[in-house]
Structures are given as C-alpha cells and as structure tokens.
Design a protein that fits this description.
- By secondary structure, this protein is mainly β.
- The protein is about 5% helix and about 25% strand.
- It is built from two helices and 27 strands.
- It has a seven-stranded mixed sheet with strand order 1-2-4-6-8-10-12.
C-alpha cells in the first residue's frame, strides 16, 4: 500500500490524469515517460514545453489531442505505438527539432497542421490512414521523401505547401482530388497526376521553379486558377481532352514554356491564362479553326506572351501582336 501511494504521489507530481486521459505534463522533464493505461493525451497537455527531448508513449494510447506537443522545440523523435487512431490538429506543430516520425499501422486520421513546421526529412503514411487534413505537413522545409497512404482519396489544401525539398512524389491511384496549394512551393522536377484524379485545385503546383514535366489526368475538366503559376522551368504541357476551361493565371510567368497542346473540348480561356509566358510563340490546338474561334477568350488572356500562331487541325490561325482574339 505504501509503495502504491508513493507511485500515485509521483504521478501526481509529473502528470495530471483524469479517467485515462493525461491533461497536463510536467514542463521540466527532458524525457517524458507517459504511464501505461493512458488512452488520450489531452489538448495542450505539453504545449510549449521547451525542455522535452524525448517522449515515450504507452501501448494503450489511442488519441493525441489538439496542440498536445505544439512548440516543443527540443523534441527530436516520435515513435507511435500500435493503438493510436487519431492525431489531432496542431499536435506537433512547430516542433522545430523533430526529425524522425514513425507512424503506426492502424492510424486512421491526421488532422490539420499536425506536423507543420517540423524538421522531418521523410514520412511514410500507413495505408490505414484514410483521412489527411489541411496543411498537415506544411512548411516542413527538410522533407524529401514522402510515401502516401494508398487509401486516401483527397490530398488536402496546402498539405505539402512550402515543403521546399520534395523533388518527387507518387500519387496513389485512389486519389480523386488534389486540393488548392497542395504541392505549391516544393522542389518537384516532375509529377504524374493519375487518371483517377478529377480535380486539380487552384495553385496546386504553383511556384515549383524546377518542374520540367507533368502528366495530367485524362479526367480533368478544368485547369484552375494559378495551377502552374511561376513554374519557370516548365517547357511543354499537354492538356487532356475533356478540359473545358483554363482558369485565371493558370500558366502565368511560366517563362520557359515553349509549347502547349490544347484539346478541342476547351470552351473558355480566362484572363492572364498565358500572361508572362515569354517563350510561347505557338499553340497546338486539336480542333478546327472554327472551334478555336468559338472559344471564349477573356481580355489579357495572352498578355506579355509573343504568341504568333495557333496550329489547328485544318490550318493555322495567325495571331497579330497586341491583338486579342
């Protein structure tokens, strides 16, 4: 009984626990050993605790709460036990020394901004994960290798925004939606958007300065606002049949773009879609001259672009300087 009382008193000094939920941890520990039996780490339990360098989780753990370890700037490694199901929003945000994260098979959900602004170099998201939320890995500037769960259907808004060391990524075939800014500001050199994808969101590949080649899904209906803006190494693009609209500033400042193939399905080219494409002198259009003429082209759709000719299936359409068609 005496030993049990001493152990209980010790836990009270180190942690506050309510019904298998750890609600507060001692901020002065270098190594945090969370006791067995804990199923949830509560909201802000270790928020901005600057001394923690390591955390050991019990096998009983199921949930890591909102902002649980946010700002623990000395924390270097996270290895999750097998029973964790949910990592809640901002759980490890701005853990600026966090280099290693091992996610468990059985994890189901990673909420928004969960690992943003950490120092991780690689991440493997297990196939048990079905939900990945906005900006989960935003601004992880050292992140180079990413393996995505094969069972996610959406890559959310800003998921890997400003992960400036990512050079390549494989998009799983179950993905149907890539949301806005999902891969903007990365170091991608090429990307294949699988045919399962029906939506490539606004600015999805914006500011990828080294992107040279891209394969677009055959099931896209629109090239949205800013999709390829400032992709200054992109030279050639083939837009698949079925796309009906090229959105505002979709290719703005793609200064290396030399050729683009446009399908006969296209109906609208919005303003500044090819603005600043200073090497684009010709367009390959899969339809007829009449079909090209029928496309609704908003004013300034080709400003600051030396476009001279559109090659159609039945002949060429010459483009006069500073004249909109």
């Amino acid at each position: 009984m005496e030993n049990e009382k001493q152990n209980t008193d010790k836990l009270k000094r180190l942690f506050e626990i309510e019904n298998e939920k750890l609600t507060f941890g001692n901020p002065y520990l270098t190594t945090v050993e969370i006791p067995d039996g804990i199923k949830e780490i509560g909201e802000e339990a270790f928020l901005d605790h600057f001394d923690h360098e390591a955390v050991r989780f019990p096998e009983t753990l199921e949930v890591i709460g909102k902002r649980a370890f946010e700002g623990c700037d000395k924390l270097k490694e996270i290895i999750l036990p097998k029973n964790v199901k949910i990592i809640k929003r901002w759980a490890f945000k701005q853990c600026i020394s966090l280099e290693i994260i091992e996610l468990n098979d059985g994890l189901e959900k990673i909420e928004e901004v969960a690992f943003a602004e950490t120092k991780i170099k690689s991440i493997s998201i297990p196939n048990s994960v079905k939900i990945l939320e906005n900006a989960a890995f935003e601004a992880c500037k050292h992140l180079k290798k990413v393996v995505l769960s094969k069972n996610i259907s959406t890559i959310p808004i800003r998921c890997f925004h400003n992960c400036e060391s990512i050079k390549s990524i494989e998009i799983p075939k179950n993905v149907t939606t890539i949301e806005g800014r999902a891969f903007s500001g990365t170091d991608l050199t090429s990307i294949k958007i699988p045919d399962s994808v029906t939506k490539l969101g606004y600015g999805a590949l914006d500011s990828n300065a080294n992107l040279k080649s891209v394969y677009l899904s055959k099931n896209l209906k629109e090239i949205e606002f800013n999709t390829f803006a400032k992709c200054t190494s992109l030279e050639n693009v083939e837009i698949p049949f079925g796309v009906k609209k090229i959105g505002v500033e979709a290719f703005i400042d793609c200064s290396a773009l030399k050729s683009i193939e446009i399908p006969s399905s296209l109906e609208i080219i919005e303003r500044d879609a090819f603005n600043g494409c200073e090497n684009l002198e010709e367009i390959q259009f899969q339809g007829t001259k009449k079909q090209w003429s029928a496309i609704k082209k908003q004013t300034t759709w080709r400003d600051e672009t030396p476009l001279k000719v559109v090659h159609c299936s039945d002949g060429d359409v010459n483009i006069k300087p500073k004249q909109e068609n």
